[in-house]
Amino acid sequence: MTGDDRWYEAAFVVGITNALNVVADGLGAAPMPQVEPETAPAEVQTVFADIRAFYGTGTPVADVLGGQIPTPFGLIAHDPGYLADVWAAVKRAFTDRRLSRRHKEALAFAVSLTTRSAFGTAFHLGEMRRLGVGERGVMEVVGVTQMFSSYTKIADTLQLSSDMADIAPADPSGVPDPGAG
To answer: How many domains in the chain?
Structure first.
C-alpha cells in the first residue's frame, strides 16, 4: 500500500474539494444565509477560529471571498456537528503529508475548473497564490487541466472504452489506515 498512498491522498483532496464546491455553488445561490461568526454559537465560533488560522486572515483567499470564513463553512454551520466533521475532513485532506499543500491546492483548483465551480476556482486560486504559486504556475495548472479535460470530452464523445482496464485492476484492499506505517 505504501506506493499508493499519494493516490489515496489525492483522491481524498478531490472528494473533499467536490463536497465543498457542491455546498458553496448549490446553497450559495439559494436564499440560505450563512451563519455570521459574531452571532454563532460557541462551538461554531471555535471551528471558525480554526478555519481562520488554517487559511490565514487578510489573505487573498479572504479578499476573494469577501470575508474570513469560506462560503461552504458559513452555510453548513447551521448544523454545528456537520460543520465540525466537514472541517476535520478538509483540514486533514489539505494538511501537508506525502503531497504538499501547494500540490493539493493545485489539484483542488484543477477539480474546480473542470467542474466549473465559481466558488472553488476563486478560492483555490487564492490559496495557490497565498502559497506562492505565480502566474506561470497557475497557467501551467490551467494548461494541463484544459488538456486532460479536452481529451476526456473527446473520449466521451467518441464513446471510447479504456484500453488500460487490465493493466491496473481494482484494489480490493480498501482505504489504507493513515496511522499505520
So the answer is: 1
